[in-house]
Amino acid sequence: MSCWTTATLGNAIELAYGKSLPKGDRVEGGKVPVYGSNGITGWHSEALTEDATIIVGRKGSAGAVQFVDQPCFPIDTTYFVRARAGFEFDTKFLYYLLLRLDLARLRTATGVPGLTREDAYREVISFPDIEEQHRIVDLLTRAEGIVRLRREAAAKAAELVPAIFIDMFGDPAKNPKRWPTSPLGELATLTSGGTPSKSRPDYWEGDLPWVSPKDMKRDLINDAIDHVHPKVLDETTLKLIPAGTVLIVVRGMILVHTVPVALTATPLVINQDMKALQLKSELSSTYLLWLLKVSQPRLLELVSTAAHGTKKLETKDLVALKIPLPPMALQRQFLERVQAIESILVQQANAIEKAQATFNALLAQAFSPPTSSALTQE
Fold first, then answer.
1. 180-325: CATH superfamily
2. Can you tell me the mean pLDDT for 224-241?
């Protein structure tokens, strides 16, 4: 049985500071990845690390752990990991160890989330000899690889829907199949949202989903982070949005890169940064949802910036948007294909969940050494 050593994190490794590297100082076309707390933020010609390393978020996504299998340049919002003299680590093992340690729980809650080295260094870790580290890495890498393959398969399945849309209907901006068109304002009723008064706690003690842009991360919205009491429908200007309605974000900094759209799966209410598009006729909500998704460049061109810097998609521009109108029979055929792909995505999601649970269980088991065999290094 392998003998495990126990030490404080600060005695075993150094969390070295990344260095500032403004975008203007980076070499365009360089092959060295520049890493921030959330991953690659650009490229450069020189590396700060010599080999594979581990990046730990210092600010922003503080405590987030990333394994990098090549020389890289960690910027000053990160730490990168170096083993102390007298300690031998497989770099990938150390990555899994820090992943299990969950340094994100130590981040400060005030201002910009941050992780201080002093807090991290007090953590106690246990680890085996290098041969046992290699064995653990082999096992966990296999399990993690299954999770990655499941996610890649789900991503490829999700890419099928926009591809099918273009194949069936063509690019909406060019309308190559010469479908008749109509302004969106003639096809849908636009409903605005709002925020119930925060001075009325009773308004926020219900189970009616109150959707805001932060909830718009899925194609189908069946719940929200925040909820309100149904009484807001009688006592405020909020309107109940029925299931099957297309939602679109029309205000906020999120509009810099994308214009989020989604379809409601349950009745709900929305905040003032969004619009609900309730269709009148001639249009399937699923068809409109994916038309708007594949029309992102077109929508982003309509986004303007107000004097105070707020990004906004004006209602007048939205209602004037020309919508191609293919036959309803073709729209229904598209819906059937989307439903088939959604069924696959549900299966993939279940497979990902099981694979992730297996990896998490193996990770916990790998770092539960027999205490009777542990040595201690102060």
1. DNA methylase specificity domains (3.90.220.20)
2. 96
Length of the chain, in residues? 378
**What are the Cα distances from residue 216, in Å, to 89, 138, 189, 249, 339?**
42, 38, 20, 8, 20
pTM over the 0.85 mark? no
- Asked if residue 227 lies in contact with residue 250, where contact means CB atoms within 8 angstroms, the answer is no
d(CA 18, CA 40): 14
8 CB burial (10 A radius; 0-12, 13-18, 19+): middle
Q: Is 82 exposed, middle or buried (0-12, 13-18, 19+ CB in 10 A)?
A: middle
CA 87 vs. chain centroid, Å, equals: 36
Q: Give 32's Cβ-side CA count (13 Å radius).
A: 18
Confidence of residue 124 (pLDDT cuts 50, 70, 90): very high
Convert the pLDDT of each residue in 127-179 to its tens digit: 999 999 999 999 999 999 999 999 999 999 989 999 999 999 999 999 999 99
- Which residues make beta-bridge pairs with 82? 14
- Rounded to whole angstroms, the Cα distance separating 123 from 137 reads 22
DSSP code per residue over 200-257: -GGGGSS-EEEE-GGGTTSSEE---SEEE-TTHHHHSS--PBPTT-EEEE-BSGGGGT
Alpha carbon 26 to its chain's center: 26
Q: Does residue 377 register a pLDDT over 60?
A: no
Is the pLDDT at 303 greater than 80, yes or no?
Answer: yes
Domains of the chain by residue range: 7-127, 134-158+326-369, 180-325
Mean pLDDT of 78-105: 95
Per-residue pLDDT tens digits for 185-197: 999 999 999 999 9
Three-state DSSP class for residue 282: coil
158 touches 352 (CB < 8 A):
no
Task: Estimate to the nearest angstrom the gap between the alpha carbon of 207 and the chain centroid.
Answer: 25
CA 6 vs CA 3, 24, 277: distances in Å: 10, 44, 59
330 three-state secondary structure = helix
CATH class of 7-127: alpha beta
